[in-house]
Write a structure and sequence with these properties.
The protein is an alpha+beta fold. It has a single domain, classed as Hotdog Thioesterase (Thiol Ester Dehydrase, Chain A), CATH 3.10.129.10. A six-stranded antiparallel β-sheet has the order 1-2-4-5-6-3. The radius of gyration is 16 Å and the shape is elongated. The termini are far apart.
Amino acid sequence: MVADPEHFELRIPVQPTDIDQLGHVNNVVYLRWVQDAAVAHWRDAAPKGDQEKLLWVVVRHEIDYQRPARPNDVILARTWVGEAIDRLFERHTELRRESDGKPLARARTLWCPIDPTTGRPTDVSPEVRARFSVGDAPA
């Protein structure tokens, strides 16, 4: 796991349960990895107080599959934040095979902050907005 101000990377070994009947990683697993990388980034970069005050839910996934991952592969999930529009926070993720660096999939996800007490969308502090977006996009 590598973190820098702009990117976060998570190393993910392919598990036997990730493999589908075609002998490669199922597409739904790729999506899980995209979410796992985002959550790991949040837990790594957000102060504990913010983690207690906010939960995040996905409102949209866009994913382009490029190559299959296979048994025994190790995946590098690299994620970075994009623009924020009101309560929608954009995040990008690229999945690559560690052994040859080939891209396997690219994703764009929109996340919404949720108040854990009410379960309703909520605003974030200026610090969270600054850390988890590259700025506000035009609405």
